[in-house]
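Researcher: Please translate sequence to structure tokens.
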Amino acid sequence: MTIEVVTNQMAINNEIAVLGGLKEYLSYKEADKENRFFVAGDNMFTRKARLLQSIRRWQTGAKEGFREYKGEKTYHGNLAENAHETGVNFLHHEIFDYVKKRISEKKPYETIEENRMMNNFLSSQPMAFNLFYPLMQIVECEDGQSKLANVVNTLLHDSVKIEKVIKVGLEFIPSYYKQCLNDKTAMDAFFRFVTKDGKTGIIAIETKYTDVLGQNEARNPLHAREATQREGIKQLFHEDALEEIKLGKTQLNQVYRNFLLTECVRIQENLDYSLSIVLAPQDNVSNKEDETKLINILKDEYKYKFQVFTLENFVEVLIAEFPEESIFKRFRHRYLDFRTAEYLLR
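Model: Translation complete:
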């Protein structure tokens, strides 16, 4: 064993030693605190992740928060109370400061939800800020741009050879969204890049923790269907699939809309390349059917434009490329080290 592995195992043993029983981290009604329960509807992975985030919330010292329905309060371990004041949902105070700035400057069409962002440890929205804000800082220097390009190239396996990632962004809806899908479809994060021969591109990233990609039809389905018929986009799809979309026989749910938004941005900004990526933990397989359907309706030469990576693999490549940046190891511990939760579930 390496020193790092031994040290990591000792840390987990220490965590387990101070944990209470499973019951302390489960949900309960305000009127019946002794009757603890798992959240109905959670699959096995979500149950494990909710438990892990309940532990992480407890480790910050924050009191558990609640949801209220018809005057009845239900407390959940993954919710924090008043975290908008303390910033405990974020891995660094600079991330918390950036989130507060984004909320204070929120545009009418943006979809940042303050309560979910600040208080829900299980939400993928603050998770995205915890992962990508440090990368925003890293690409402020040229060396960081090249190193992040190495990370992306490792994952893409030469689908597109990137020279530098010149910008990282979070929770992005273009100001010209009405010329795209005319709804609030957003990129959780994005990379803007250049290639060695000076071509430009964008990688849109959808991050999912326990979330399921939305099954709901587009708010403006006509706009979304029209986007598939645009010059520069319709060529990406098989003819029969394009006809199914045109006739409204294919529901353009979230995975399709995210992809279409990326392609619209490419056209609007005259970019050379565009890719859409989904990042999710390896055990969150709830979106696999929709992801496979989208890949299957793309022509073979364009399938590279939509790819799915595990969050674990992405984080490990980041750690390898930026070993001096402890925040990526902290991210892995916060979201992906399930050993304490699995111990309690056993």
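Researcher: Any highlights?
Model: The longest strand covers residues 72-80.
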